[in-house]
Structures are given as structure tokens and as C-alpha cells.
Amino acid sequence: MVPANSNSVGALIAAGITLGTGQWQSTWAWRAPSLFQGIFSLLCIIVLPFIPESPRWLVNKGLYEEARTVVAQTNANGNLADPVVIAVFKEIVDTLNWEKENLMTFKETIKHPVSRKRLLIGMSPGPFSCIAGNIIASYYLGPELDTAGITSYNQQLKANVVLNVWCLGCALAGTQLIARWGRKPTALLSQCLLITCLFIIGGLSKMYADNPDGASKGLVYGDVAVMFLFQGFYSIAWTPLLYLYPPEVMNYAIRANGLAFSSFMLNALA
């Protein structure tokens, strides 16, 4: 669940930086956040050569000893004789051998009904998360805050920082809750709550737009609170599910291609 929560951490850092640079009266108000973002890309380039290779990929290429070493390093502090290491390594080897014997190649991704079903199910979280309304809530947060009565640029930046803290906390909680509640129940409950929040946001925003001068602070705060609830409900379910569910339903033979299709669907609709 590191990738999903890392996105939330990155969004929080970006929100904090833009809050600070937003007061600068120069083009560096946007250049500095962009430059800072590049630092993390540079760190990735530096760290990647030291990250162990996937043991499944190593076994698939016939590098058994290297794969066994990686499994031992990640499961038992390098102890090759640990029972967990032996069991995990055997499971990897047996699974890959079975898939090779049963001709689980790239063509199998779309050739057999079972593989097509796995692929479609694995691709489904991307479109479902996009039609949940999060795209509107994320891309148009500024106009939404305007319609809620928060028109100050500085206040909107502060609200964005608090919102990202809230989303990070909900995403961390969601990674634990989906293991207890189940994937489908969590997604269905989240979707129902998101729909409810959208209706409430629309109604409160309409009330403010009809009479902005006479709108009470309770109306403004209530609208913003529901916006926060909306983002929280999304983060609890869809933020972890986007990264957890696709690889769970795809076997090794179609996982790489399936995850590529899943990412394509998500980014194409985002």
C-alpha cells in the first residue's frame, strides 16, 4: 500500500509548498514547486539501482539462487534456511512452472474467458473510481470553494493543505479497514456515501449561489465540511483499492500486461 499512500504524502507536500510560495510576487511562485517536484524524481533514479529485483521475475528468467537470496533478504534478514523463505520460494517456483506448463503466455490474456474476466475485473477500479466524482472534486476544488463562500486565495491554499492531511489519514485507515470489511463491501459503501455527499454539496452550493450576501457561516462551513467528507470517503476505499485490487485478481502471466491496461484506463479517464 506504499504507492497509494505515497501519492497522498506527495499531495500534502505539494500543498504545503504552494501555500508558502503562493505569496511570492514572481514567476518563482510556480517554478519553485515544479523544481522541488523534480528532486524526488532524482532521488528515485539514485535509489532504484539498489532495490532488489523481483524474485518472481528472477525465477522466470532461471536465476533461482538470486531469487532465493532476495526472498531471504525480504522475509528473514538473509537467512536462506528460514521456513518462511523455503515456503515462499517454493510457492513462486511451483506457480511459475504450472503457468508455463499450461501455456500461460501473453496471448492467454485475451484468449481464454477466465483470463479476459480477470483482466476486465482488474481494470474496473480505474473507471469506477473516476465516475465516483473525485475528478470534479479534485480538479475544481478552487471553484467549489468559491461557491461555498471561501474566495480568498490564501484561505483556499490553507484549506488544500488541511484537505490533504485529512485524505492521507483516511487512506491510511482505509488500508486497514478494507482487509476487515472486504474489497467489494468497502467499495459499495464508499460509492453510496460519495453519491450522498455530491447531492448535499450541490444543494448547499446552490443555496449560497442564490444569496451569497445573506449566506450564514454555518452554510459555508457545512458545505466545506461535506467536501472534506467526500474526499475522505473516496480515500478510504478507492485510494487503496486502485493499487491493491488489480494485482490480486491477476495471475503472474497476465499481471504485468494487466496492470498496464489498468493504469491506462485510469489515466485515460482521469
UniProtKB/TrEMBL annotation:
Compartments where located: Membrane
Residues spanning the membrane: 34-51, 119-141, 161-179, 186-204, 224-245
Record keywords, A-Z: Membrane, Transmembrane, Transmembrane helix
One cellular component (GO) term of this entry: membrane
Domain of life per record: Eukaryota
InterPro entries reported in the protein's UniProt record: MFS_sugar_transport-like, MFS_Sugar_Transporters, MFS_trans_sf
Membrane topology: Multi-pass membrane protein
Chief location category: membrane
Residues in the signal sequence: none
UniProt xrefs under SUPFAM superfamilies: MFS general substrate transporter
MF-aspect GO terms: carbohydrate:proton symporter activity
Coiled-coil portions: none
Record Pfam families: Sugar_tr
Name this protein carries in UniProt: Major facilitator superfamily (MFS) profile domain-containing protein
Organism name: Cladophialophora chaetospira
